Amino acid sequence: MKYVLKSLIIVVTVILCMGMGELGGRPEGTIPETDVRIEAKITDRSGMETSLNQFSMDGKTYLDALRGNGQLTIPFQQLASLTCGKISGDEMAVQVKLKSGAVMDLAIRKRALFYGSTGYGSFVIKAYDVARIDFP
């Protein structure tokens, strides 16, 4: 009887302790910390413009894009603008203009998240809700 009671107490304790752990992830209302300070102005598909600093894409300070069947990463410091286009499946067409003047047609994941700080709060937006991003 003592063995069953001890076992029951241990099982209940373990179950209760499992529920006390944190779920992980970033706390609500925070943005990823980056080593590089990137400024950007996002225009969403409704036309609303938001100026941001500490800008990142999924917490990274570079554009993670597809060029044909290949993967291409471009640091945001090299970008002048990014214009979003048609959504197809899990991807969204984007036209990227580099500060050098070169223009490329690429694709990004439509569910990618862009983060930044407005100076009065944290900002996050899904890629498919973005119309344009300008990098001053």
Mean pLDDT: 87
Q: Helical residue percent?
A: 10-25%
H and E string: HEEEEEEEEEE
Rg measurement, Å: 22 Å
How many distinct beta strands? 10
Task: Give keywords.
eight-stranded antiparallel sheet; two-stranded antiparallel ribbon; mainly beta; elongated; 136 residues
How would you portray this structure in words?
- With about 140 residues, the chain is mainly beta.
- The chain has one domain (about 30-135).
- It has one helix spanning about 1-20, and strands at about 40-45, 50-55, 60-65, 70-75, 80-90, 90-100, 105-110, 115, 120-125, 130-135.
- The strands form two sheets. An eight-stranded antiparallel β-sheet has the order 7-6-5-10-1-2-8-9, with no helix packed on it.
- Mean pLDDT is about 85; it is low at about 20-25.
Present the secondary structure layout:
Blueprint: H1 2-18, E1 40-44, E2 49-57, E3 62-67, E4 70-75, E5 79-88, E6 91-98, E7 103-109, E8 113-117, E9 122-126, E10 130-134
Antiparallel strand pairs: 1-2, 1-10, 2-8, 3-4, 5-6, 5-10, 6-7, 8-9
Question: What's a quick, concise take on this entry?
Answer:
By secondary structure, the chain is mainly beta. The chain has one helix and ten strands; from the N terminus they run αββββββββββ.
